[in-house]
Amino acid sequence: MTKIVTIEPLLVRVGIRNQLLIKVTTEDGIIGWGESGLSARERSVAATVSHFSDFLVGQDSRRISRIWQECYRSQYFEGGRVLTAAMSAIDIALHDILGKRLGVPVYQLLGGKQRDAVPSFASCMGESRDELLEKARILVNAGWDCIRIYPSNFDNGGVYDPRRSLKGTAEELIAIRNEFGQSIALGIDLHHRLSVAEAASFCHMLPQGTLDFLEEPIRAETPEAYAALRTMVDVPFAIGEEFSSKWEAARYLEAGLTQFMRLDICNIGGFTEAMKVAGWCERHYVDLMPHNPLGPVCTAASIHMAAAVPNFSWIETRQSVVESDLGFHDPKIFPKQVQMDGPVYVVPDGPGLGVEVDEKAARAVTPEHVEPPHLRRSDGSVTNW
Known about the structure:
Elements: E1 4-14, E2 17-26, E3 31-35, H1 42-56, H2 64-73, H3 81-102, H4 106-109, E4 117-124, H5 129-141, E5 146-149, H6 162-180, E6 185-189, H7 196-204, E7 213-215, H8 223-230, E8 237-239, H9 246-254, E9 260-261, H10 270-283, E10 287-288, H11 296-308, E11 315-316, E12 340-341, E13 344-346, H12 359-364
Parallel strand pairs: 4-5, 4-11, 5-6, 6-7, 7-8, 8-9, 9-10
Antiparallel strand pairs: 1-2, 2-3, 4-13, 12-13
Helix pairs in contact: 1-3, 2-3, 5-6, 7-8, 9-10
């Protein structure tokens, strides 16, 4: 009765984004839900899920770690973000099923609960410094003690000039720090848009103590580039949302190149891989700061992981008082989901993930084509989104 009978990718429009949900059903009718984290490339992941289902249907849904290994090793070309995003969704769904089968929350499958509530950080940006400060005040007044901003000063037409943008962004960070002092933790997501020199120059614009973390200033393919940047700046790095395996994470952990691990449970390989990375982080006294930009399934999986690990700082939330209009957690599609109490998530104690999906509502919404902005520099050359 525990065998897998169907694995279905379900592309759903939720708010301003598409979400790729994975529905796994066993022969005794238990349904598990997972989510892929490879935003805007969901069709590629859905095709991979279909490949995996060819050999997973009929297998015992309880053999989660073995299924992970077979998915990873069953093709000559191992790994990669498309493959691990598909594996992540399946792995999360299988944990959801096992929790429901045993009548326990997923965190019990991971070793038990270490915390009752999971603190979050909230994000904001503004078209002006005054607007950004006002949004920061709203967050602080609502109880958040860690906030993150995004760089502003994007030109119309998708032109991004780092030098012009970073000066204004540095001034915004200084203004926030001056207003709130050291009562909050403050970070910025640079979305890997910079070169090593640009990232270093930006940090040098800031008085010491302005930033508590610098997130993804440059791309993560080359650890040596982060090693070079580390010699130039003294701000803690928050890196990891691009990682698709423990092997990628290991290069940064062993070299001391990240102080916060931004792993994404919907990309790195689900619970099976994320918990291994969490243990590796514990060895190096690195706290998890999970990437969580998607919907209720991703959030629930991240909360169960966060509840079960000792080394944790904050989880990203897109449900703050200034981002709630994004609609990623639409209650019509997800009538049951993890709840927040102010700036913290309450760890659910029901069986499985604690998420329900209204399939009729989900299937009634037509997914829209989504393509991330294709940014360019002022000289016409292509740069990173």
